[in-house]
Amino acid sequence: MRLLILFSVFAVFVTAFPLLDLIPEFRSTFNQLINSNIFQINLQDNKDRLIKLGPNEFKIVSEIEKLNLKRQNKNFIDLTNQISIEKAIEDGLINKPTTSIWDRFFLIGAKQIKTLKNPIPVYNYPTELSYTKEVKSLFELIDIDLVFKKLTKFSSFFTRYYKSQHGFDSANWLYDQLNKLISEFKEISITKIHHDGWDQFSIIVSIPGELKDKVIVGAHQDSANLILPNIMRAPGADDDGSGTVTTLESLRVLLQAYKDKTFKPYNTLEFHYYSAEEGGLLGSVDVFSRYSAQNETVVGMLQQDMTGYTQGSIDKGIEPHFGLISDYTSIELNEFLKLIINNYNNISYLETQCGYACSDHASALENGYPSSFLIESDFKYTNKFIHSNLDTIDRLDFDHIKEHIKLTIAYAYELSLAKKLY
Ligand code: BES
Ligand code: ZN
Known about the structure:
Elements: H1 2-22, H2 24-35, E1 49-54, E2 57-61, H3 63-71, E3 77-78, H4 85-90, H5 101-105, H6 132-139, H7 144-154, H8 165-182, E4 189-193, E5 202-207, E6 214-220, H9 237-259, E7 268-274, H10 282-293, E8 298-304, H11 311-315, E9 322-325, H12 331-344, E10 349-352, H13 361-366, E11 371-375, H14 398-416
Parallel strand pairs: 6-7, 6-8, 8-11, 9-10
Antiparallel strand pairs: 1-2, 1-3, 4-5, 5-7, 9-11
The chain binds ligand BES and zinc ion.
The site of zinc ion has 7 residues, from helix 9.
């Protein structure tokens, strides 16, 4: 009996769904329902979005379809704010929007076209390290209790969803933390990058070097609960509270050396905190397309997204290690990272893949800048509690976060002092 009911519900659903397409009234009622305040999914922006699902694959989708793609672990970059849909059609990136819900669901209709605008320059990264003594002495300054305190606060915001008031509040808290760190150095700047369409801003801290060429360390500040992002709790302790506090502590330590006059970057060193990564890399795409439009040079960008979970490895009897993402990243910059890890860390790395555009490093690459992504472990052992209310601080390993901090300090120190990169 139960099976029969289940089957009937399924049959009604399957037949009713395409009907939504045939009868416009049905469709609009359905849309009104899911957009209504009861669900609070905030789909008032049910306008079409232009997304990129792979190096040659574009698609027009709605906001709810974006959320569904994320729920299916399909990565994409939302380029709506960079390329208008009219322009994308004109340039032949996509066919005219399809109206069939089936086509949309199965992502049919994307045109195959080569578009990676800019070739990625190859830089001569150091093949030997020059500052091991100085860098290792900085490791003594890492204050892991402080990191724990900061992450406790950052993950206590109800959510850091980029379209929510909480996400705006958490951005302001983060801004205040960074502002306090740099307040005594007048030449170091902090900038809020406001984005079109939502309130949570990205933040850039810039320590000017002799050259304008940039070395960048990044993390994303937003979190999301994929069931109902607007109403459900998303502590995002690992994703990506961990990366945020990893780079925050690295910056704090480097600034101590800066204050003591034992460190002054030669290339400009920047720390980025992106908004709306979970919306399809929206904040970082905005930042890097501005850099590209202003002809900025970025010699290397390193993303730190999920730096704290080791239980997945431990459960399988595998020692904690880094996951060095090898797809859609710079081969040369990855080689440089291997050199850093082998010399500065107590743990090793496994090369692993996470698919197209799984974090903000992809926005740098998309705009012609070499980037790398170092994650907490091989992809298959990473934290399975992310994007839910279970992504909490008690599941994280602070010894592991410390290894990511050491890595970040060493990367920033060595590369920002590297000369003759081209
Ligand atoms: N931190 C995740 C990516 C991730 C998850 C890397 C698990 C490795 C293991 C990131 O915040 C995320 O959720 N990315 C989206 C893609 C984005 C373009 C919407 C994803 O992977 O679904
Ligand atoms: Zn993330």
